[in-house]
Amino acid sequence: MTWKPGWRRPFLMVFAKDGEALFRGQEGSSAGGFETTAPVEVGKEYEVSIEDIAREGDGIARVEGFVIFVPDTKVGDSAKIEIDKVMRRFAIGHKI
């Protein structure tokens, strides 16, 4: 894809503590971009396992490969969480 005037090219990369890239996102134009349907919904509860820790210290869980950041957790924790916010490429939840 070639950049054209008027397009925006935001870029997001999130790394796990071990340096593995969890996901990368880049949109093509302000009129369109990629669409991702999240397998989680705001207000719903899920049972997850914390697989890694993000640079900011939040636990990282996945539901169908979709990244969920969960504060106040550590690697190896199993937790019941509620989703607070869903973005295109990740969600934020809390332990309940």
Give a structural overview.
The relative contact order is 0.22. The chain is mostly beta strands and 96 residues long. A 6-stranded mixed β-sheet has the order 3-7-8-6-5-4, with no helix packed on it. A two-stranded antiparallel ribbon has the order 1-2. The protein has a single domain, classed as Beta Barrel (OB fold (Dihydrolipoamide Acetyltransferase, E2P)), CATH 2.40.50.140. It has strands at residues 11-15, 21-26, 45-49, 52-53, 59-63, 66-70, 78-86, 90-95.
Keywords:
OB fold (Dihydrolipoamide Acetyltransferase, E2P); 96 residues; 6-stranded mixed β-sheet
Describe this structure in a few short sentences.
With about 100 residues, this protein is an all-beta fold. The protein has strands spanning about 10-15, 20-25, 45-50, 50-55, 60-65, 65-70, 80-85, 90-95. The chain is globular, with a radius of gyration of 15 Å.
- Low confidence ranges: 24-33
CATH fold title: OB fold (Dihydrolipoamide Acetyltransferase, E2P)
Distance between the termini: 43 Å
Shape: globular
Radius of gyration, Cα only, in angstroms? 15 Å
Architecture in CATH? Beta Barrel
The overall strand count is: 8
- The tally of structural domains comes to 1
Q: Which series of helices and strands comes N to C?
A: EEEEEEEE
Please, what is the CATH homologous superfamily? Nucleic acid-binding proteins
Helix fraction bin: under 10%
Strands side by side in the biggest sheet: 3-7-8-6-5-4
Overall structural class, as computed from helix and strand content, comes to: mainly beta
Number of alpha- plus pi-helical segments: 0
